[in-house]
Amino acid sequence: MNNKVHNFSAGPSILPEKVFEQASSSINNFNGKGLSILEISHRSKDFIDVLEEARSLAIEIAGLDKNEYSCLFLQGGASMQFLMTAYNFLNENAGYINTGSWSTKAIKEAKLFGNVTEIATSSDKNFNYIPKEIDIKDIYDYVHITSNNTIFGTQFHSFPKTDCPLIVDMSSDIFSRKIDFSQFDLIYAGAQKNLGPAGATMVLIKNSLLDKVERDVPSMLSYKIHLDKDSSFNTPPVFPIYCILLNLRLIKDEGLDNISKRNKIKAELIYNEIDRNTCFSGFSKLEDRSQMNATFNLNEGFDGEIFNSLCLKNNISGINGHRSVGGYRASIYNALDYNSVKLLTECMQEFESNN
Ligand SMILES: *Cc1c(COP(=O)(O)O)cnc(C)c1O
Q: Annotated catalytic residue: which of 141, 169, 173, 185?
């Protein structure tokens, strides 16, 4: 057994080793200029090049039209987007689909700005499924959904159709699969799940959405002002953006098609074991299972401490479930290797045969 730690953390979470290597070397000497990435001006050409490459790569990877959509890197996490989206776009009524803790928090913030209708919710079953066949009236300034529910381990596999602008919190599954990104008018993602380190939030926004802003918005919370200033209205999170760029380059090289396939294979491996193994049960409804966060519980009568120490012995880290679900959560983001998932399933098998 080597010392490699298999990191199943839900976030901040695993990133490709190559990102760590390149980011580390840029801390000592960025672009061979004898300065650290941590000390260069955000107005320097070297950093403006980083920012512009990251912004255009994000749009390219998403397959969006660069004349129609813009990319921003903002601070305040996805949680800031809960209020920014409402502040900018909630004039009268907004519709929210509530599929878990993060949507619930987004709803709470939006209520400060206007009427919020919970169009559908899965709260009746502790969010273990995704509501389907939702009839969405065209009365909303926008409709907000959470594409992947990091805590409960459910994921939209097809998205609701609506004539209203569609806003999506894609924090925990951005660029994990090939989808039609143009069905959304605004996509936001806190970086620390699948993109980069904490400290930057990526926003992909349809430019035409900005025409719908009716109220005065403070500068720091205004998408328009951040866009007018090319995502540098104030000092942007330089280092997180640089790390995101390094990751976006890898994502582009591999391609979303290949990434989708790889993630699907990893998800099948862990879910097949959960379903086969007599000691464990999956938490979320089969058809709504997340390809990023696999949630499962230990069946009654088995000793969690024994399984935990087996995982510890095998350098498996970060699989404890969120306190609102309990049990286990294996986060299997893009950067997690198939062999790490395989090792976890082997631990589950070993646990079963010892008990
Ligand atoms: C983690 C997470 C958030 C919160 O992100 P912060 O950057 O901590 O504000 C919001 N939505 C989803 C889906 C998440 O997974």
A: 169
Give burial (CB, 10 Å; 0-12/13-18/19+) of 349.
middle
For residue 346, give the DSSP letter. H
* DSSP H or E stretch at residue 43: none
Residue 227: Cβ within 10 Å count: 17
Closest atom of ligand 1 to CA, residue 79: 9
Please give the full DSSP string across 106-117, using - where no structure is assigned. Answer: HHHHHTTTSEEE
Pairing of β 201-206 and β 186-190: antiparallel
Q: How many helices (H) and strands (E) does the chain have?
A: 9, 14
Of 256, 254, 247, nearest to 54 by C-alpha is 247
CA 120 to chain centre: 21
pTM over cut 0.90: yes
DSSP-based three-state secondary structure for 203 = strand
Say if CB 295 and CB 161 are below 8 A apart. no
2 confidence band (pLDDT: 50, 70, 90): low
Same fold, 17-254 and 256-354: no
Distance CA 278, CA 290 (A): 21
CATH 3.40.640.10 fits 17-254, yes or no: yes
Q: Is the pLDDT of residue 1 over 80?
A: no
Reported as a single tens digit per residue, the pLDDT across 286-324 is: 999 999 999 999 999 999 999 999 999 999 999 999 988
User: Domain map of the chain by residue range?
Assistant: 17-254, 256-354
Distance CA 292, CA 153 (A): 8
- Please state which CATH class domain 256-354 belongs to: alpha beta
Cβ of 172 below 6 Å from ligand 1? yes
Indicate whether residue 193 lines ligand 1 (CB < 6 A): yes
